[in-house]
Amino acid sequence: MRGLADTVSRLSAMTRARVAQSPGGNDGRLAPLGPFGANPGALDALAYVPEGLKPGAPLVVVLHGCTQNAAGYDHGSGWSRLAEQHGFALLFPEQRRANNPNLCFNWFSPKDARRGRGEAMSIHQMVAHMVKLHRIDEARVFVTGLSAGGAMTSVMLAAYPEVFAGGAVIAGLPFATANTVPEALDRMRGQGGPANDKLAGLVTRASDHRGPWPTLSVWHGTSDATVDVANADAIVDQWRALHRVAAEQGRLQTVDGYPREVWTDPSGREVIEKFEIKGMGHGTPLDPRGSEKCGTAGPYMLDAQICSTSHIARFWGILDANAARKPVREEAEARVRPSPVAETARNDDGVGKVIDDALRAAGLMR
């Protein structure tokens, strides 16, 4: 068991790692959703609906990271620009500071991270309202998020698997591997947790659903000092068992200079993909200067010369059929290029060093 000094040291390190994200980036593209039903998690909700959205369009739920808000994450990630181009709707649940001082979704708390409870139930209510209000195709509802939002994405996929056709977890964690503050800290460090063969059971026990299961896209920087990259493998392990694909069935490719591992079901459909971004710290990988001009670089929004936003949407099959796809090269061992990304998450922001402040900065205490 770790001693108090070790806990204080690691909490303080996590606090120093936090980069303050300005709530800027609100260019008026998102609008309040309005009343959407029961809201036990006391969350806010914003939406983006392109002009002339056709009935039966897809819906993407986007969950921001700690210290961010909905408008700032949209501005950085470029989701509403992509939705405008390709004709799908967006829902942005937004944390309130009263729930979490650093605006983190409470991903590890059972009272917020289980079916029919707290924040998870609030997000489900928002989705149901959007589906009805805008005549969304219920078979094409997806969810994605960064960091605490990525961990909450794992929660939504597990708690409501019948609602989502697919999900994308960026720098996040598997579902239900942490239920206390010490457990959450250990999992973020890539330590402890259930054995690989127990991970899928956490999902199957989360609801009465027995399949089919959502597809999954996983993204993580190899130099992430906030959420260890080992969590990417744990997320994949949790869902490979549900899709009944073995680890050795993964196929390795190079996409935009980075390795992409993909698993297919017996019909040949891609059900899980994993990108590990060489040298990238904690954040969402973007390509603001490339041919796709994806997103805007900033804290936790990292110029990695690959656009996770468009790649995720393409994996889900919601981009226009005429959209060009960059060639993918198959190979036994993927070539990895150095990333220009600085490890943004390691910057020191000078937040207080006491345990309570550190817990709040880590998003582990209200």
What would your notes on this structure say?
With 366 residues, the protein is α/β, with parallel strands linked by helices. It has one domain (30-361): 3-Layer(aba) Sandwich (Rossmann fold), CATH 3.40.50. It is 29% helix and 17% strand. The chain has helices at residues 4-17, 70-77, 79-86, 118-133, 148-159, 181-188, 196-204, 230-243, 308-316, 355-361; strands at 31-32, 44-48, 59-63, 89-94, 141-146, 166-170, 215-221, 251-255, 258-264, 270-277, 284-286, 301-303, 329-330. Strands 1-2-4-3-5-6-7-10-9-8-13 form an 11-stranded mixed beta sheet, with helices on both faces. It has a two-stranded parallel ribbon with strand order 11-12. Strand 9 and strand 10 form a beta hairpin. The radius of gyration is 19 Å and the shape is globular. It starts with a helix and ends in a 5-residue tail after the last helix.
Helix/strand layout:
Elements: H1 4-17, E1 31-32, E2 44-48, E3 59-63, H2 70-77, H3 79-86, E4 89-94, H4 118-133, E5 141-146, H5 148-159, E6 166-170, H6 181-188, H7 196-204, E7 215-221, H8 230-243, E8 251-255, E9 258-264, E10 270-277, E11 284-286, E12 301-303, H9 308-316, E13 329-330, H10 355-361
Helix pairs in contact: 1-10, 7-8
